[in-house]
Design a protein that fits this description.
Helix content: 40-55%
Strand content: 5-15%
Distance between the termini: 78 Å
Shape: globular
Bound molecules: pyridoxal-5'-phosphate
Largest sheet: 7 strands, mixed
Radius of gyration: 24 Å
Length: 472
């Protein structure tokens, strides 16, 4: 006698509810513009809507879906709203969403090549495609010693790069004399990676930027710091160049930094988490000049390139250091394919063992948009940004405070921090837009990042009208 399986959905039930869910998501896409970008729920509101204990008996799926509207949507910050100008955007698109559905439907784990060859080989191939699309040097392609992998985040990629660099410099030995370097504008994930890797805070040296100009790292300061450390018997082992800082899209001089890194035998990692997506446009590749001297690069298509979180493309020029740092082989994972040396096992390229079929979403996106479609997305956002920046620059009460080569404008009120903070609060208070802030040279600055898939010229015009109304 077989077991009773009536508590599982049949494929027909899945089909029916699947259609309902796709319909629900499509309706959300149509209606998100009408919702306030930020929620106004008080802390604890969501939990108050939920029963204290889980259901004992199965509930109808209609009730689950209804609670999306009742409990979840009212408590969301709507990252896909066309009035999203905060932080950086988070990518989403039809092909990417459907690919994630397929990935869940297949439910496979790609930790080893042998646990699903398609997961590994599609990923290797799509990462080679992405390297070509971004104009990255041949050394990052999988044909030679290098290759790419999808990490869950830029933070994870930077940590893996640091661990590979530490392995190259010190192997399993002590590493208290090693020193890492990045700019004062670097993303917090660099400092976090240093901490997670067990380095002391003083093993990360923060290099000055050119504050009066573009907030990019000063390579002479980097060279001075590494020389000073070397003279003191320390070992410069890891340098992070920021290709598009989070605060202001400052572009560190990768070429000059790679010369310093090479002279010291240090690993150069390029954090191009957001701005790297611009490299799909050949006319923008000047931003990565000198990248052939880098040892690793990461770019998040889950920010600006239409791909749902999580998708960070991470390339290394020499995969042996990464594998050396991260490979631990227990008996239960041994298999003939791995031992043949003919396959990639991506478990050795990342922190966790298990991994989702993430390459599917990048594959769906690249094929559905084509290189031309991706370039249009980037070019349209940059054009909107430049027009917006011109308007800010022409306003008597506002001042653009940093170069804006891509899709981020930083500006402030000429009256100082107080009116700038008041302007930001007034804009966000309308519910029609969401902007965030940073500090540059000690001053409070409003950031406008234009990169949400739904944002069109009319939405940026709308933002400008609000600014004109509220800037006083
Ligand atoms: N690096 C830069 C320059 C970023 O702007 C960000 C996030 O905004 C990150 C790293 C961290 O990205 P992730 O969330 O993928 O770790």
């Amino acid at each position: 006698m077989g077991q009773d399986r009536s508590h599982h959905w049949t494929p027909d039930e899945f089909r029916a509810h699947g259609h309902e869910v796709v319909e629900w998501v499509a309706r959300y896409m149509e209606e998100v513009e009408e919702l306030p970008v930020q929620t106004s729920v008080a802390p604890g509101w969501v939990r108050e809507q939920l029963p204290p204990s889980p259901p004992v008996a199965a509930e109808g799926f209609a009730d689950v879906l209804a609670d999306l509207d009742r409990v979840v949507v009212p408590a969301l910050t709507h990252w896909q709203h066309p009035g999203w100008f905060a932080y950086f955007p988070t990518g989403a698109s039809g092909p990417s969403i459907l690919a994630d559905l397929v990935s869940s439907g297949l439910g496979v784990q790609g930790m080893l090549w042998s646990t699903s060859p398609a997961v590994t080989e599609l990923e290797t191939h799509v990462l080679d495609w992405m390297a070509e699309l971004f104009g990255l040097p041949e050394r990052f392609r999988s044909r030679g010693d290098g290759g790419g992998v999808i990490e869950e985040s830029a933070s994870g990629a930077t940590l893996c790069a640091l661990l590979a660099a530490r392995w190259r410099a010190a192997g399993d030995g002590p590493f208290d004399r090693l020193r890492a370097y990045t700019s004062s504008q670097a993303h917090s994930s660099i400092e976090k990676a240093v901490r997670i890797a067990g380095l002391r805070p003083d093993q990360l040296r923060v290099i000055d930027v050119d504050a009066a100009d573009d907030h990019a790292v000063r390579p002479d300061r980097l060279a001075a710091a590494t020389a000073q450390d070397r003279a003191a018997g320390l070992v410069p082992f890891f340098v992070v160049a920021n290709l598009g800082t989070t605060s202001s899209t400052a572009l560190d001089p990768v070429g000059a930094m790679s010369e310093v890194a090479r002279a010291e035998g240090a690993w150069l990692h390029v954090d191009a988490a957001h701005a790297g997506s611009a490299l799909v446009c050949p006319e923008l590749r000047w931003i990565s000049e000198g990248i052939e001297g880098a040892d690793s690069v990461c770019v998040n298509p889950h920010k600006w390139l239409l791909t749902n979180f999580d998708c960070d493309c991470f390339w290394v020029a020499d995969r042996s250091a990464l594998i050396g740092a991260l490979s631990v082989l227990p008996e239960y994972l041994r298999n003939a394919a791995s031992e043949s040396g003919a396959v990639i096992d991506y478990r050795d390229w990342q922190l966790p063992l298990g991994r989702r079929f993430r390459a599917l979403k990048l594959w769906f996106v690249v094929r559905s948009y084509g290189a031309e479609g991706l370039r249009r997305v980037v070019r349209d956002h940059i054009e909107l940004t430049q027009t917006f920046a011109e308007r800010v620059a022409a306003h008597p009460l506002l001042k653009v405070v940093a170069p804006h080569p891509l899709n981020l404008v930083c500006f402030r009120h000429v009256g100082g921090d107080e009116p700038t903070e008041a302007l930001l609060a007034a804009l966000n208070g309308t519910g029609r837009v969401f902007l965030t802030h940073t500090r540059l040279d000690g001053r409070f600055v409003i950031r406008v990042a234009i990169g949400a898939q739904a944002t069109e010229a009319r939405h940026v015009d709308g933002l400008w009208e609000l600014i004109e109304q509220h800037a006083q």
